[in-house]
Amino acid sequence: MSGIPWLDPADLSFPPIESALDDPDGLLAVGGDLCLPRLLNAYRQGIFPWYEESQPILWWSPQPRAVLHPERLYINRSLRKALRRNDFEVSFDRDFAGVLLGCAQLSQKRPGTWITNDMRKAYQDLHDAGWAHSVEVWRDNKLIGGLYGVAIGRMFYGESMFSRAANASKIAFVHLCGQLQEWGFPLIDCQVSNDYLDSMGAEEMDRASFKQCLQIYTSKESKPAKWTLDWYYGKPPPACP
Hints:
The chain is of the alpha+beta class. The chain folds into two domains: 4-61, Leucyl/phenylalanyl-tRNA-protein transferase, N-terminal domain (Alpha-Beta Plaits), CATH 3.30.70.3550; 64-216, 3-Layer(aba) Sandwich (Aminopeptidase), CATH 3.40.630.70. Helix content is 29%, strand content 23%. It has helices spanning 36-44, 77-85, 96-104, 117-128, 168-183, 195-199, 207-217; strands at residues 6-7, 27-31, 48-49, 58-60, 65-68, 89-92, 132-139, 142-152, 155-163, 187-191, 203-205. Helix 5 (168-183) links the parallel strand 9 (155-163) and strand 10. Helix 3 runs antiparallel to helix 4 (117-128). The longest helix has 16 residues, at 168-183. The chain is globular, with a radius of gyration of 18 Å. The termini are far apart. Mean pLDDT is 92; it is low at 237-241. One of its GO terms (molecular function) is leucyl-tRNA--protein transferase activity. Pfam families: Leu_Phe_trans.
């Protein structure tokens, strides 16, 4: 960690994101804590925590940034078929703790996790305060997939997703994108590119452009609150009572 600034737990500020390392890509700072004000300050600047149990808290702001415009979401043929079967139920903020647990669970494909107990507590606190949200996919009243992230203003920061059935996390993502588009969210932060996100329509944005987007979209503040889904793939939203 030579040359990387250590954060003072009593000071919520961060170094400028332009000072992040190129190798490893985006490492910006170490230490501090995961208190709610620090996390909100980090997200507003395009910074997020990512570390393993044996490490101190590491803060990142990679270059370039993976993002997705909700209206550009790509839905392939097999996913469209799964959506048309409609043998699932989708909800927002019904079981945030369950989604966190699903994202943290180990498997053959995921032998380690960065969602430590401290991270789970921090994001549960964000959810309880109305800043973090989950999308759940259910079948026969069982949670089969979902995702969670943080919303500030009109900016959504995706964090993690999981599936216990084919296409479950993608179904969650489709409904998130549809709802965010309805609500006027122009951008989803996907942090770093991977094949999964690329297949859904994610693209890369340079740091300066991403920073400019954050300044605009996070300034459109809305009151943090529990979310309710009213957009559904292939059918109109339920009638207002």
